[in-house]
Design goal:
Blueprint (H helix, E strand, L loop, with lengths): L1 E4 L6 E5 L18 E7 L2 H15 L3 E7 L8 H13 L7 E6 L1 H13 L5 E6 L2 H7 L4 E6 L2 E8 L4 E4 L9 H18 L1 H15 L3 H21 L17 H10 L7 H19 L4 H17 L12 H9 L9 E8 L2 E8 L1 H9 L3
Parallel strand pairs: 2-9, 3-4, 3-5, 5-6, 6-9
Antiparallel strand pairs: 1-2, 7-8, 10-11
Helix pairs in contact: 2-3, 4-5, 4-7, 5-6, 5-7, 5-9, 6-7, 8-9, 8-11, 9-10, 9-12
Length: 366
């Protein structure tokens, strides 16, 4: 199946099909310009990148392979600079295209390199994790982390195509699969009660890598994100529709930054952040107390069934978390803004949430 991201001249397809990497679909010319930089992390190279390189070379492409480490700590300006050095050594031209093969870290960094090399070259996303398939590969956000906050340095740079092969999830560590499910659950809370209920009914099948279930949740998640991005590509205003995608991310990104991008996977941080946001929604009245308690209970139950955390890690320092939240890109002025649920399937933005309210939501163990 194919999901389209409608952005006028920057529109692109998201191809979703088991076996896709064994039999590549028809691709736009910008994806196969004759010169390709294939960026992959060490674990993905023998699994998928080597075979993909052979297929691209068979299509007449000159391929330069760039290998990076695995983990958020490698999403940095230092690693981007090393990639620039390798591209310069290969005399990689502005007519080329960067292909990212791997998870969200690989896609974010490779996309940032594509956006900035010679002021921008073609870019193709080949996500191999569930989180990357449903979230980071779609929408054009690229970037690297800064020691003070996640994704502070970056650019919007849309891919020319996204290739999602659910078969890749069969080699994914179980913890990484669970991490991706956090973003799927997020889509249900922010925009699609039916998707939320589908995950409630089919979570066990998803964890057992049922191909039909996984294809459905990938396609539905991509459609939601494609619709949102089509309405608000650059999140140009904090009240724009794209801001809803940040449910759970204000606190979640802060946990990632304070814990130095290594202890929590992205989805694990987001499941904690969504729990914080649901508690805030009840406390601030964006959702009626009874409905809010039901939402929090159903969301928490799903996270626990999926093996995702919901409680703040022991020893977390609130002042450091609050400082990281203050750097969030959704903020306007001096306050910290949150995306909070009004019901399952709908969220709203709340401005200038107080530190005391956030502290209570973070350390509430109920």
């Amino acid at each position: 199946m194919t999901v389209s991201v409608s952005l006028g001249p920057r529109s692109y397809p998201i191809h979703i099909r088991s076996g896709l990497l064994q039999n590549l679909p028809e691709l736009p010319a910008a994806a196969l310009p004759g010169e390709i930089a294939l960026v992959a992390n060490a674990s993905v190279v023998p699994l998928y990148a080597d075979a993909l390189l052979q297929k691209l070379e068979a299509r007449g492409q000159i391929v330069t392979t760039l290998q990076m480490g695995d983990g958020e700590e490698f999403k940095s300006l230092e690693i981007a600079s090393r990639a620039y050095d390798e591209l310069a050594e290969a005399r990689f031209s502005r007519r080329g295209a960067v292909w990212a093969v791997g998870g969200g870290v690989t896609g974010d960094l490779a996309g940032f390199v594509a956006a900035t090399w010679m002021r921008g070259v073609g870019f193709v996303q080949v996500p191999t994790t569930l989180l990357a398939m449903v979230d980071s590969s779609v929408g054009g956000k690229t970037g690297v982390n800064h020691p003070r906050a996640k994704n502070l340095i970056g650019a919007f740079w849309q891919p020319v195509a996204v290739l999602c092969d659910p078969d890749c999830l069969r080699t994914l560590p179980p913890r990484e699969l669970r991490s991706g499910l956090a973003e799927v659950i997020k889509y249900g809370v922010i925009a699609d009660a039916e998707l939320f209920e589908f995950v409630e009914r089919n979570l066990d099948a998803a964890l057992k890598l049922d191909g039909e279930v996984l294809s459905h949740i990938i396609a539905r998640s991509c459609r939601i994100k494609a619709d949102v991005v089509g309405e608000d590509e650059r999140e140009s205003d904090a009240i724009g529709r794209r801001a809803i995608l940040n449910y759970g991310h204000t606190a979640g990104h802060a946990f990632e930054a304070v814990m130095q991008y290594g202890q929590l996977l992205h989805g694990e941080a987001i499941s904690i952040g969504m729990t914080v946001a649901a508690r805030l929604a009840i406390a601030l009245g964006t959702i009626e107390t009874g409905a809010g308690n039901e939402l929090l209970e159903r969301q928490t139950r799903l996270f626990e069934r999926a093996g995702l955390p919901t409680q703040t890690p022991e020893g977390a320092d609130f002042e450091a978390l609050w400082a990281a939240m203050a750097l969030d890109k959704k903020n306007r002025g001096a306050g910290v803004n949150f995306i909070l649920p009004t019901r399952i399937g709908e969220v709203t933005r709340v401005e200038n949430v107080s530190a005391d309210s956030v502290r209570e939501a973070i350390f509430n163990r109920r």
